[in-house]
Amino acid sequence: SLIFIHSFKVGDKSKKEGLCEMKDATAKDKYPEFEGLGLTDSEQVSYDRFRFWKVVILVSIWYSFYYLGRLNWGMCMPWMIKDLGITKTQAGVGATVLFWSYAFGTLISGKLGDTYGARVMNTIGGIGTVILNIIVASMARINIMLIPWGFNGFIQGQAYAPTNNMITQWYPKAKRGLATGIFATSMGVASLFVWLITGTVAAHYGWRAAFTYPLLFCTLPLTILFFILARSKPKDAGYPEYKETMTNTISSKAEELRDDQISGFKAWGLLFGNWKFVCLAVASFMLYMGRYGLLTWVPLYYAETAGINLKKIPIATIALPLGMAVGPIIAGWISDRFFKAKRYQILTIYMLAFTTIMIILASAGLKTLGLPLSFFLLAIGGFFVLGSVGLVFTPACDFGGRRMAGTAVGSVNFFNYMGAGTQGFVIGMILDATKNWGIVFGLLSGCAILGIILVNIVRE
């Protein structure tokens, strides 16, 4: 599907004229960002292939398995509660510790990524998370376990902002939606891998094995491969920088800034001095309450309310990551092709749909809906919430341009994971106090409504 969508950008003309004529077509119409760079048609095609396969696709595959060291807590929560004898609040605090430490990690990594590039930062993150997950798996007490788990959150935060910066270095605003949409799809695919790989290992060998083997045999080898093949900027691969084709936008204005204007803490000052950027960050906080509210608690929800055997939980609840796997790429493609890169319009549609589904789950409940309809709604909810998440980061890249993309994404991601961490202990306390899952889904719908309001204030 990725190959099809990438090829679809060539346009309807290629379908009529065939592959041979497509190769001979003037590259000017296909790659306006390369005009005036002195590249031949074949060099422009080579440039485009490199940035698609060795930047977008490679980092998306790597990031899909990087998540095995982060989402494993939520997937393994039913087993951990039983094995360690902890409460839901304690389990939720574990999620909070990871997400809040991630928030500070990603805030710093944005600036570091602008300096050192995604190739270095992602390698540090990949190796670090493997080591820290193995340490967590070796511990027996939850209080001590939270220390390396917190460091793991910080290390996990080293990759996302630099990766978005890398994509911004290779793609202009007009084509960035699809590129970031493909990368955001890796978050949904990652959820699917966690359900299939981590869930299967936990069901058969225990949660400690699920914290160890998937990372050793999947995350670590792919991290090494990424370091060997990836390049953070076009010049690192021998290509010139593209020319931004959309003028008078937040991206073009950011790229006109001088080095002395964005040095040190000045970049953060410029970003947070823009009230629209602040609204975007808070909207993203709300979205991540919804995203991780589902990812963290859905396995436990079905284990408790549907009476599903723990060994069957990963397969029974796989509808959620399946929906998440396809939401972002479709949203990114739609925003570029039909909304002319106006992300807020499709973002509003997605968030309204997610809100509707959460209201249905909150008001009807599992007994009324039944398992088949409940799983279907879960898949659709995952589709819309992660599709929304992917769209939030694209305007963040736009606010930063090539000069500050990492800093901008890292700043938004800080708010994201503050929201993700907040849902951890808040939902845990709600469940311990009320045992009412309807309140949980009602909370998530309320967060989405606030996000919709803020996104339409930003209108980027």
From TrEMBL:
Transmembrane segments: 50-68, 89-108, 120-140, 178-198, 210-230, 275-293, 313-334, 346-366, 372-393, 414-431, 437-458
Membrane topology: Multi-pass membrane protein
GO biological process: phosphate ion transmembrane transport
PROSITE patterns, A to Z: MFS (PS50850)
Key words of the record: Membrane, Transmembrane, Transmembrane helix
Major facilitator superfamily (MFS) profile domain: residues covered: 53-460
UniProt KW Membrane keyword: yes
InterPro entries per record: MFS, MFS_dom, MFS_trans_sf, OPA_Antiporter, Sugar_P_transporter
The UniProt record lists the keyword Cytoplasm: no
GO cellular component, one term: plasma membrane
Single GO term (MF): glucose 6-phosphate:phosphate antiporter activity
Record-given protein name: Putative UspC-like protein
Species of the source: Desulfotignum phosphitoxidans
